[in-house]
């Protein structure tokens, strides 16, 4: 778990604004944390919630103690007055917001303070967004809303106008890599996580995760299939890939891993071996640079980006992946 001081090293402006609002007791009733993935939005939300409910915090400091009952319960996701809302499937739906509103009509279980945090706020349906707008228009004095998004342009202007916007700037891969190495992540793995724009919470989730380890293997197996005209990539997609990658975010992660491999192949073509991320794939990259031209590699990267865009816009995962594999198949 990061502290404000650690977060300030990578997000000085956003951190300073939040720390000042806490110390001066001038917290807004609604915040919008926006910026790319892996920039600390979730950690900032967690720190803010911990400090808001902390039982032992120094009034002159923005840091939560991290060890009281409330801090520990928030870290474990079990505090009754901190509500996390995430997309249900492809979107945040109206009934999720209505349930939240109903919960907030009750007296707090331990105090009248409440916080709700919406992840991927840009994924709200129109009905959900309108319902949330009514909630924001009638704020309770002791209720704080934190909305997080990577795509601020897709959030309704009427919601934006009722939130204090906190921008989290993109980090470069070197900064992320250094963070992960300092957390004890092996250098080769840290390099991949940094290229994927993971934050520390993602790293903690995936570093020892058997699903992710298997996902990496399947990605490389698919590459071997589509690179070899005698292999059947379409069949492998249905027999293996779709059995492992089932949710939308899993497909997106799989595409990101494919992108890393093809971007490394481009780096090899351009003589930029120093930029290669998947070091363990060096032999395979050497092999395929002679059979796949730079122009063909660029075309593959384009198809991967298009597929990721389709999935983000709710094109059916299977249809999007079928089209991709047919385009990648040599």
TrEMBL record:
Pfam families given in the database record: DNA_pol3_delta2
The organism's place on the tree of life at top rank: Bacteria
Keyword match Lipid metabolism: no
GO MF term (any one): DNA-directed DNA polymerase activity
Keywords, alphabetical: Nucleotidyltransferase, Transferase
Record's protein name: DNA polymerase-3 subunit delta
UniProt-listed Enzyme Commission number(s): 2.7.7.7
Organism: Alkalibacillus flavidus
Enzymatic class: transferase
């Amino acid at each position: 778990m990061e502290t404000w001081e650690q977060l300030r090293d990578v997000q000085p402006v956003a951190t300073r604004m939040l720390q000042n609002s806490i110390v001066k007791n001038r917290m807004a009733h609604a915040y919008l944390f926006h910026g790319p993935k892996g920039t600390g939005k979730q950690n900032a939300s967690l720190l803010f919630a911990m400090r808001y409910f902390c039982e032992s915090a120094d009034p002159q400091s923005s840091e939560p103690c991290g060890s009281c009952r409330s801090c520990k319960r928030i870290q474990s996701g079990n505090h009754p007055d901190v509500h996390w809302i995430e997309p249900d499937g492809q979107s945040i739906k109206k009934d999720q917001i209505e349930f939240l509103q109903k919960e907030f009509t009750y007296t707090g279980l331990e105090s009248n303070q409440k916080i709700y945090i919406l992840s991927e706020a840009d994924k709200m349906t129109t009905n959900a967004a309108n319902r949330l707008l009514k909630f924001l228009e009638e704020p309770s004095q002791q209720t704080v809303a934190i909305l997080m998004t990577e795509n601020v342009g897709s959030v309704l202007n009427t919601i934006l106008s009722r939130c204090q916007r906190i921008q989290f700037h993109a980090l470069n891969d070197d900064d992320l890599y250094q963070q992960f190495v300092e957390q004890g992540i092996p250098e080769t793995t840290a390099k991949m996580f940094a290229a994927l724009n993971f934050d520390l919470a993602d790293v903690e989730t995936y570093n020892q995760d058997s699903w992710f380890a298997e996902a990496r293997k399947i990605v490389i197996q698919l590459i071997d299939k589509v690179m070899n005209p005698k292999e059947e990539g379409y069949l492998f997609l249905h027999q293996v890939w779709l059995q492992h990658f089932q949710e939308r975010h899993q497909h997106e992660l799989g595409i990101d891993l494919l992108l890393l491999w093809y971007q490394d192949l481009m780096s090899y073509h351009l003589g930029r071996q120093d930029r290669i991320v998947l070091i363990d794939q060096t032999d395979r990259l050497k092999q395929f640079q002679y059979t796949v031209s730079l122009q063909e590699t660029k075309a593959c990267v384009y198809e991967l980006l298009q597929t990721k865009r389709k999935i983000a816009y709710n094109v059916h995962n299977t249809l999007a992946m079928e089209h991709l594999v047919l385009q990648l198949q040599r």
